[in-house]
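User: Quick one: structure for sequence A, then sequence B.

Assistant: Sequence A:
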Amino acid sequence: MVHTNYIVNPRLAVFLSTLFWGTYWIPVRQIEILSGSPYFSSIGFFIAGGISICFSLSTKGFVRAMDLRNVLGCICVAAAISLYTQGILYTSIANAVLLFYLSPVWGIFIGRFFAQIKFTVDRVSAIVFGLTGLVLVLGFGNLDMDGMTGNVMCILSGFLFAIAVTFFNSGRAIGTWYKLVFIGPTCGAFILLSSFGSGEGVGITLDNFSWSSGLWIILFSTVWVTLPLWLIIYAVHALDAVKMGLGMMFEIVVSLVSAAILTQEQITLRQILGTILIIGASLVDVFGLRFWNFNKHPKN
């Protein structure tokens, strides 16, 4: 990992991003409702890519800066975001955000595979907490297969995000805008490709467009894509997958509260228990099982 002087504290950048990621579901669902298409949000990602190009033009060396690991990291982030964007349309907000935040648990397995990180008691406990939380969130039986499609998308999203952070950690430290130039259009392309996989074709026509959906797309591309994506990608060279997941967990609170207020979405006791275990998984891996470790700095 490359250490450098940061103009913004990476942990603060991650925290600020959660305020936007926590309400990310609002524009995504509004665009889908107004356009009648789950794929219209792809336009927002292409716009975000254009905005990123404008900011990156002042710096030279874009092609030389993008080494293979950064390219792979960008692809994984784009896949993760596109899956999450589609997933929150097919499952509850609570399930979507909680299943994504199994990312730190997947980060333990990925770290073991790529960096030979040892399986300590704390890490094994984190895995048990996380997977038990997964079972509680999904339920023990009579699963709704329609909702399960969104659940699987969000689980895969968290897994791919953990892989992306691992690639970025081991890659060259380069400008954040360079990555966003790559990530934005790739997200849009993945969402459009998913429309072909569903048999619906491109999934975007002028008949779907309205001034209201256009306004939401502009807001989505700037407030909910470009800004929080810049903040989170900015921090990836300073924080590993587990610490990133821990820092982003305030998004859970923002998501659940906003969903409860705006959609009257009910949070069950089972989901609350799953939430506690999934959050606990990250806390245990970073701080350890013993409660007095919470007054200390996270483990390396």
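Sequence B:
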Amino acid sequence: MSEEFLRFQKDVTLDAVTANSHLVVSDDLKHVWCGKICHNPMIDPQRFTYLPCILGTPCFSSGRHYWEVEVGEGKEWALGVCKESVDRKRKSGFSSEHGFWIISMNAGAIYASSIPETRIPASSGLNRVGIFLDVEMEEIKFFDVRNDALIYVHSPLTCLEPLRPFFCPESPGEGDRGAPLSICP
């Protein structure tokens, strides 16, 4: 399934300026994980203050775009797109009502950020998610790349401003860091 979308593949990278201060971003801007240590406590209006999130680049205001993210063994994560202007000082929750069109993994189940929140059965072994954004059609599709299966479609995307790739990696549990999210080449 992802083969038909590969012609729309974009070189998405992480925008370190937007990273919550507990996130660690790789030098190549392709991997992010959440640690227990605050790395850069400086206040910045572009940064997510409370939630361990980061945006990607480029911004999308037209066209079709595809990228894949390795979620690995992570048990808690969120991926998708959000409005450029989302409230980065939010203390909880992501919903389409607040400009987030995402899916999230939590306790072995996948949830869509729809209103009301939609629970989606997770296929076993989900480790790579394909994301296809069609701005003109006002929809974003999520795929289980390994099993070649559609996970969920958010439509319509009611947004009149640029959209940004959105990433929220797993928080650390017993260890020093949570499982990473990796943008695939």
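The mean pLDDT is 90. The chain has one domain: 1-159+170-183.

User: Thanks, that's what I needed.
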